Amino acid sequence: MAMLIDGKAISAQIKDELKEEAAHLAAEGRHVCLAVIQVGSDPASSIYVGNKKKACDYVGIESESYELEEHTSEQELLSLIDRLNGDDKVDGILVQLPLPGHIDEDSVIRAIHPDKDVDGFHPESAGRLCIGEKGFVPCTPAGIIQLLKRSGIEIEGKECVVVGRSNIVGKPMALLLLRENGTVTVAHSRTRDLREVTKRADILVAAVGKPKFITAEYIKEGAVVIDVGIHRNEDNKLCGDVDFDDVKEKAAAITPVPGGVGPMTIAMLMSNCVEAARK
Ligand code: NDP
């Protein structure tokens, strides 16, 4: 049976470290503050926003909530972001995605000042990551690097395969693994003979967006398997992009769903907020 990589425990450890840092900053008169904007009332988004606020409370980060009506115009949202960009009290700005269809997400992401871009989605943050400069890193892939490091899994020199090339997970994941001196391959829907590619991996990151897509035949004996996916089954249970039961005997280490990558995303958001305040 593979070693379970415990995202719940590791994220709790990170949040405790951040709590101390936030307290130090507060003692110096710098209270960390995150502005959270939600447009509309999509139930899943409301749960994510609620969890982020809960984590802020735990770490000692002040969260300012902006709950805007579904029909809010793009201009109104951009004006709010502009005001928050200019507010010295606000360290980070988070706009919960997805946005209603009449609002252009790219324009909104670009409107957030790069110094307050705690989601790490702004093109300047992406560019900095690409050229190896310091900047905000998207939370999910940043959390995966922490999971690997804090579980004692070496990345340097390893064959790393990332399945998925989205701007929020796959691409930044590949760049972070490269930064850690992994030998990185990015696979996607046009990859020929995916199984042959994934079977090379010492570290396999699955960010495919398809439930239980990665089965034992996609992995090498003794691989480390990181499952980014989150899906709800017909029986209302959560599962990932990896078929956990099929893979668990063949892998050396694996992240469960839930309790693997998921909790790390919020912990790294908290980390980016503290980093923003330190700047
Ligand atoms: P996207 O849908 O944006 O990207 C999916 C990627 O998988 C694409 O690059 C796509 O390729 C690739 N892909 C799709 N089908 C195949 C296939 N048959 N073979 C190989 N590659 C394929 O998803 P995200 O990156 O946003 O998210 C990935 C997963 O992670 C989702 O399940 C999502 O719910 C989850 N997630 C979890 C988070 C967490 O906190 N745990 C945070 C963010 C996401 P192509 O580019 O060619 O279309």
UniProtKB/TrEMBL annotation:
Its EC number is 1.5.1.5, 3.5.4.9. The keyword Ribonucleoprotein does not apply. The keyword NADP applies. CDD domains: NAD_bind_m-THF_DH_Cyclohyd. Gene3D superfamilies: Leucine Dehydrogenase, chain A, domain 1, NAD(P)-binding Rossmann-like Domain. Residues 5-119 form the Tetrahydrofolate dehydrogenase/cyclohydrolase catalytic domain. Keywords: Amino-acid biosynthesis, Histidine biosynthesis, Hydrolase, Methionine biosynthesis, Multifunctional enzyme, NADP, One-carbon metabolism, Oxidoreductase, Purine biosynthesis. InterPro entries: Aminoacid_DH-like_N_sf (IPR046346), NAD(P)-bd_dom_sf (IPR036291), THF_DH/CycHdrlase (IPR000672), THF_DH/CycHdrlase_cat_dom (IPR020630), THF_DH/CycHdrlase_CS (IPR020867), THF_DH/CycHdrlase_NAD-bd_dom (IPR020631). GO terms for cellular component: cytosol. GO terms for molecular function: methenyltetrahydrofolate cyclohydrolase activity; methylenetetrahydrofolate dehydrogenase (NADP+) activity. It catalyses: (6R)-5,10-methylene-5,6,7,8-tetrahydrofolate + NADP(+) = (6R)-5,10-methenyltetrahydrofolate + NADPH; (6R)-5,10-methenyltetrahydrofolate + H2O = (6R)-10-formyltetrahydrofolate + H(+). GO terms for biological process: L-histidine biosynthetic process; methionine biosynthetic process; purine nucleotide biosynthetic process; tetrahydrofolate interconversion. Pathway: One-carbon metabolism; tetrahydrofolate interconversion. Residues 138-278 form the Tetrahydrofolate dehydrogenase/cyclohydrolase NAD(P)-binding domain. NADP(+) binds at residues 164-166, 230. Belongs to the tetrahydrofolate dehydrogenase/cyclohydrolase family. Catalyzes the oxidation of 5,10-methylenetetrahydrofolate to 5,10-methenyltetrahydrofolate and then the hydrolysis of 5,10-methenyltetrahydrofolate to 10-formyltetrahydrofolate. Homodimer. This is Bifunctional protein FolD. It comes from Extibacter muris. The lineage of its organism: Bacteria, Bacillati, Bacillota, Clostridia, Lachnospirales.
